[in-house]
Amino acid sequence: MQTHFSVDQLESPTIREMDAVLRKCVHCGFCLSACPTYSILGDERDSPRGRIYLIKDMLETDGQSLPQVRPHVDKCLSCLACTSVCPSGVDYGHYVDYARAYVDEKAPRPALDNLIRGLLAKTIPNPRLFRLSLLAGRLGKPFAGLFGKKLGALLKMAPGRLPSAESLGAPGVYPAMGERVKRVALLAGCAQQVLRPAINAATIRLLNRLGCEVVVSASAGCCGALVHHMGRAGEARAFAAANIDAWMLEVDGAGLDAIVVNASGCGTEVKDYGHLFKDDAAMAEKAAKTSALTKDISEVLADLAWPSDLPGGNDAAEPVSVAYHDPCSLLHGQKISAGPRALLQAAGFQLQEIPGQHFCCGSAGAYNLLQDELASRLKDRRQAAIRKTNADVLATGNIGCQVQLQDGLDMPVVHTVELLDWASGGPKPAGL
């Protein structure tokens, strides 16, 4: 693709990076068939190729076309399905993230949009505030129609109940059972602590059982993905810097073999810290080291020896049939697909494949809160495919997908690690 940036524009390292991204695109259109929004809307402006053209024009003209571009950038899920099929290796993920930051910096949004985005950015990354906001939302849910379309949609998504907090998962050091084979840090996350604390508890039990000492740092919190994909790059860097410093204290102290992340959306973000700080002399080396240490929980479990004397098998009378949903951030963002499936099968579960593996469920961080109508259409399509499997339970590796797909689905939705914990002696996951 030809670009027409001025000499002055190309003095910016970021514009030079975007220019290099653009020049890789050969207009082939392979991305169109993979894009969830294009498959539903049929508008090329809501496809990766279309957004690439729109953003290119916006950048080259110093934002003159920004009002026309913003709605189509906002509809992008950042599912990265396009990157899995692109034959030219176009770095669409970083390209659209830069566009979001550019859009939010150059032009203020309407007051209500700013209010909603600000509330989400403030509450979701903070477990205490998030819990309080969900409790308030539950009280306001019956009156959702009085708050207007956008705020009413947020209230309608408030869960009917919240699980009680788990003590296993609080900051601290959880020793390995028997001989220690690894020492790992676990990112406890933010929303997951509130919506499904059992995931962290199951992760810690399973890792301890397999010989891992698990460290949960009190100084490590939100990964920054949610605000990053909302265009709030500065806030994302602040979250990332706090996590990096917390984990480097452990690396420099007793050492770490891995940083384990059990929410794939967070894992994709943390694995990208090296890129986020590549131009920061003070943080670049530490960030790159953090990214190199970061592993999805399925990657860590695949590297561990599962002793033959573990309890083995779940306590169900018949083999449990499991449909596995690939989170986009794991399948496309981290290129991990076979690992979780192999773990489930090795644990004795009957695996069922879902048609349309590459399609997003519509969760995508705060996307289902900000683009609720489109997210609902994506969810309905994904749930229809899941029902065709006739499975007993749906497993996935991301809390966002779990919450999105549970709504309206007549089967329990659990994290993969909850099933693996159950199969090796842990408690049965809630809902089974």
Residue share in helix: 40-55%
Number of strands: 9
Q: Please count the helical segments.
A: 24
Terminus-to-terminus distance: 52 Å
Proper CATH architecture of the largest domain: 3-Layer(aba) Sandwich
Structural overview:
This protein has 432 residues and is α/β, with parallel strands linked by helices. 47% of the residues are buried. The N and C termini lie far apart (52 Å). Helix content is 51%, strand content 8%. It folds into 4 domains: 9-106, Alpha-helical ferredoxin (Fumarate Reductase Iron-sulfur Protein, Chain B, domain 2, Orthogonal Bundle); 111-156, no CATH class; 172-303, Rossmann fold (3-Layer(aba) Sandwich); 321-423, 3-Layer(aba) Sandwich (Rossmann fold). The model has no long low-confidence stretch (mean pLDDT 92).
Nutshell version of this structure?
This protein is α/β, with parallel strands linked by helices and 432 residues long.
